[in-house]
Specification:
Elements (H helix, E strand, L loop, with lengths): L4 H15 L6 H8 L3 H14 L21 H14 L3 H10 L6 H10 L25 E5 L3 E3 L2 E10 L5 E7 L4 H15 L4 E4 L16 H8 L3 E4 L9 H17 L5 H17 L36 E4 L5 E4 L2 E4 L8 E7 L2 E6 L2 E7 L5 E3 H5 L3
Parallel strand pairs: 1-5, 5-6
Antiparallel strand pairs: 1-3, 2-3, 3-4, 7-10, 8-9, 10-11, 11-12, 12-13
Helix pairs in contact: 1-2, 1-3, 2-3, 5-6
């Protein structure tokens, strides 16, 4: 699923709701939503054919079947930088240029090869062009990396990366993946760098729940309260989070090169150094060999410890969910989400269905007559 599929999904839902009204002018709505009339009718027809909002989601199109030798002094400097950072020739060339040494990439590679400093893992295809956001803080990617042994327990690295600049706004050494620890890291990051417009995550704990098929957790609800749009990568498609996944490869290489820490505290100290090096020293090919710090600036959106109540449209049907995350409608109990227990949600009637939204996020579709319930967050990630 592309990172923006959730926002596209919400626009399609809003279009279908309004276009399904008896007085709707579909042509005018298409102009308002910036789409062609054939596209508008395509969404409507998909919705009607499927008998629910799952029909308007875009599905995967994949088939189901499926030179001169450098001086000794220059050579020693190349070797010293390689041993200090463990980087390849392109990045080492940038550091050498800053020191006034203009050595070609091929020359640096020959030096590394001559000194037996090239390893198999250094030989990989260049990264393909990836879509990126236009400005810092439009999208952050967040993910856990596989654990490292640390004393009697383990270290779980939590990475938070800005999509546009590749700037690591957070790199934390945690003893587990519990909600309290991750929430504390997020608050610290928000207080230092501000709040992003959106965040992209996978279907892991503690931001995604598989129970009851709804997806949301207390942590993800707290992010929604900050006005953050949540995007979840497609099931079994970690490449959606390509940038943070690529950073984890860099992190693995850095830990291997510098030597694996022994304790969780040692990991925390080492991660601080790695993060500084990654943000301020290490050149990035995707940034034309600049460093992330040159492309990043903090968000203008401040963290709000006590978010104000959401202002739903005037006349909207609002209900407060009970402590089980459910509500009663036409004498029937309907479950929404345990993580939203006690929260106020909006109901929108469409044909025989109820669309449930919490603040700016659509979360569930319920068939009034049959009680059949569908998680819209989960449907959006079935790509």
């Amino acid at each position: 699923m592309p990172w923006g599929a959730s926002s596209v999904m919400e626009e399609r839902i809003r279009f279908v709701i309004r276009a399904s009204q008896d007085s709707a002018n579909v042509s005018a709505l298409c102009r308002e939503f910036g789409i062609s009339r054939p596209t508008g009718y395509l969404w409507l027809n998909r919705y009607r054919a499927a008998g629910g909002m799952a029909g308007v989601f875009e599905r995967s199109r994949r088939p189901h079947h499926s030179p001169k030798r450098a001086t000794a002094e220059h050579e020693e400097r190349v070797v010293a930088l390689r041993r200090e950072y463990g980087w390849g020739a392109r990045k080492l060339r940038v550091l050498l240029l800053e020191e006034g040494l203009d050595l070609k990439v091929a020359t640096i590679n020959r030096i590394l090869d001559r000194r037996s400093l090239i390893e198999v893992r250094d030989s990989h295809r260049p990264a393909v062009n990836r879509f990126e956001r236009e400005r810092p803080n439009q999208l952050w990617q967040m993910d856990f990396k596989g654990e490292y042994p640390a004393g009697r327990g383990f270290c779980y690295p939590l990475s938070i990366l800005d999509d546009h600049s590749r700037f690591m706004v957070g790199l934390y050494a945690l003893s587990g993946q519990d909600t309290a620890s991750v929430n504390a890291c997020l608050i610290s990051t928000f207080e230092h760098y501000g709040v992003p417009e959106a965040m992209l995550m996978d279907h892991g704990v503690p931001w995604w729940s598989n129970s009851n098929g709804h997806g949301l957790t207390r942590l993800s609800v707290s992010l929604i309260k900050q006005g953050i749009r949540l995007y979840f990568s497609g099931f079994r498609h970690p490449q959606t989070q390509g940038k943070v996944e690529r950073f984890h490869r860099t992190l693995t290489e850095a830990v291997r090169h510098r030597g694996q820490p022994a304790t969780l505290l040692d990991f925390a100290h080492e991660f601080k150094k790695i993060r500084h090096q990654y943000n301020h020293i290490r050149p990035h090919e995707s940034l034309n060999m600049a460093v992330p710090a040159q492309h990043y600036q903090p968000s203008s959106r401040s963290y709000t410890p006590r978010p104000v109540p959401w202002e739903y449209p005037e006349g909207a049907i609002l209900v407060r969910l009970n402590m089980k995350g459910a509500f009663y409608y036409r004498l029937r109990r309907h479950f929404v989400c345990e993580a939203l227990a006690g929260e106020t949600v909006r109901l929108e009637e469409l044909d025989d269905k109820l669309l449930i939204s919490y603040r700016h996020t659509y979360v569930r579709e319920i068939a009034v007559t049959t009680g059949l319930s569908t998680s819209l967050l989960r449907e959006a990630t079935k790509q």
